[in-house]
Description:
There is one protein chain. The protein is mostly helical. It is about 60% helix and about 5% strand. The strands form three sheets. It has a two-stranded antiparallel ribbon with strand order 1-2. Strands 3-4 form a two-stranded parallel ribbon. Strands 5-6 form a two-stranded antiparallel sheet. Strand 3, helix 8 and strand 4 form a beta-alpha-beta unit. Helix 6 (about 110-145) packs antiparallel against helix 19 and helix 14 (about 370-380) packs antiparallel against helix 15 (about 385-400). The chain is elongated, with a radius of gyration of 31 Å. The mean pLDDT is about 95.
Amino acid sequence: MNQQQTWSQRFESALHPAIARFNASIGFDIELIEYDITGSIAHAKMLGHTGIVTPAEAAQLVTGLEQIRQEYRQGKFTPGIDAEDVHFAVERRLTEIVGDVGKKLHTARSRNDQVGTDIRLYLRDQIHQIRQAIREFQSVLLDLAETNIQTLIPGYTHLQRAQPVSLAHHLMAYFHMAQRDWERLGDVYQRVNVSPLGSGALAGTTFPIDRYYTAELLQFDKIYANSMDAVSDRDFAIEFLASASIIMVHLSRLSEEVILWSSQEFSFVKLKDSCATGSSIMPQKKNPDVPELVRGKTGRVCGHLQALLVLMKGLPLAYNKDLQEDKEAIFDTVRTVKACLEAMTILLGQGLEFSTPRLSAAVAEDFSNATDVADYLAARGVPFREAYNLVGKVVRTCIDAGKLLKDLSLQEWKALHPAFEQDIYQAIAPQQVVAARNSYGGTGFEQVSQAITAARQLLSAE
């Protein structure tokens, strides 16, 4: 890079080659090229609409920009480091195509409001795509839940067995997490879909522009009311990264469970060959690489959020070069979230199967039905706290004797409290334990079936 290129005659010499490389963003902001062209076309049309350029000149600008779009798609336009950034690369090529009229494109516009427009157009598209990926993930969760309503799995608190639950109920918890993710991105979209175009460098412009016209062409819902805020605002990007981080946290929690469930100690799921790898020296192993990678990439996305928060916290108004650093964080987050959603969707839909016999055995070999014994007594007039303490003693006695609650004889039950009858065995059977929890939002089979039906309706309503 040995020429001044973008700078005015204020500068007597070119940038040092190393500084030029350090300063350039073309290596990553080329991802915005089609959005830059789309925004520039709207700007060119506005210039013609307001008489800032002639209708013929505006038409030339639009035609030239569309040619650049086609050249890029065909691999014929590949700007290098000498272009510095995608915005100058497009403008320079436009001037080569249409001549001096191309130099009029930047009238009444700064790269500050230009890049702000580009990144919003990009994020709008990506939010739509990520929300669609979430819907596909939810659909697979629903399919898996629907086939496992009657399948039981130990429910945990503190990673200790607590109460048995329907496997479908467990999976539906992730459906609802994903639903919040989908809704949250919809909220973020409202702040993304605001046009900064026409704000100039920071103070607006002396030209008679029509910001509402470009906003309408670009399908923005509204425009920024303050030009300084418009070019320096990255709240929308922080919100997006925060939403993306929460998505990744949800995927990571599910990943951790799959990793545990696929271990020999749990053996709740079996990984299929299509979604697992082996060891380089231990031929017997099948590793849960997909959930491990998702779990690992979560830290990366959360790191991008932290980086942008720290970047923004010390910036005075208005635009600062620091903001160039937002793009790599946003681009990488988008790629990572989309890839992880796709991978987890494939894993759940095609890459694992639950070991029903092992799950059935798991819910029958512990004391996770102890609460139901306390509930049994409470339903027969025994104060719950008294019942709770009594059952605690029963559990301790059983552990000492190497028994489970189901192994106690009716005589032993009655010796503990006269309220116990033959139906205690049915009350503590795992299927009944789950079925009885029929409160709204509970794990009872009836409730779970209703929840799945409501979820299906939610997805089909769009």
